[in-house]
Amino acid sequence: MSLEAKSLERAQTFIDFYKEHKRFPSVKTNDPHEHKLAVWIVQIRRSKRGTSDPARNMTIYASVQKLLDEHVPDWLDGAGQQLGNRRRHCEMKANKIISFIQEHKRFPVATVGTPNEERVLAHFLNRLRMAKRGSSKFVCFLHPSVQKMLDETVPFWTNSKHFKMN
């Protein structure tokens, strides 16, 4: 069996798991079959994003990506345990940042004495900025939908940490 055929078989197993359980496989499971699938999809995502260790980079065949895209459209986003997938989580945080900026006429800051919720938003905004500048460590935070949302509502979000609106 070729490597591509093995990858297609693994992708189909992942799709079947997703359809049966209505969730992505978890690496924190006691089930060795589920764990193996979870590790595989994490490695595929990292290879696709270019964030994996080069020694562990996997070939992503076009046929495998097409199969995953057709049956599990959010496969590349991953999933959070309680917040749905990463894209929705990032969109939710971006909406909170936008609301904060509109309400306070400034960016959130992470200084001593700042309320915890504002500090969380400031740190997340910083991660988005780093991803925008090309930091592969944070690229998973900047989903295209999040970047579009920020670009359309707060076009200056990448330019200055100290901007104040009039």
Furnish the topology, listing elements before pairings:
Layout: H1 3-21, H2 32-49, H3 62-71, H4 86-104, H5 116-132, H6 144-153
Structure keywords:
elongated; mainly alpha; 166 residues; 2 domains; 6 helices; 56% helix; single chain
Task: Sum this structure up briefly.
With 166 residues, the chain is mostly helical. The protein has helices spanning 3-21, 32-49, 62-71, 86-104, 116-132, 144-153.
What report would you give on this structure?
The chain is mainly alpha-helical. The protein has 2 domains: 3-71, no CATH class; 86-153, no CATH class. The chain is 56% helix and 0% strand. The chain has 6 helices and no strands. α1 (3-21) crosses α2 (32-49). Residues 79-84 have low confidence and may be disordered.
Euclidean distance between termini CA atoms: 65 Å
Q: How many domains, in number, for the residues?
A: 2
Tally of helical runs? 6
Task: Describe the global form.
Answer: elongated
Beta strand %: under 5%
* SSE order: HHHHHH
The chain-level mean pLDDT equals 81
Question: What oligomerization state is this entry in?
Answer: single chain
What is the helical fraction, as a range of percent? 55-70%
- Biggest sheet architecture: none
Strands, total number: 0
Spans of at least 5 consecutive residues whose pLDDT stays below 50 are: 79-84
> Roughly how many Å is the radius of gyration?
19 Å
What structural class do you assign from the helix and strand content?
Answer: mainly alpha
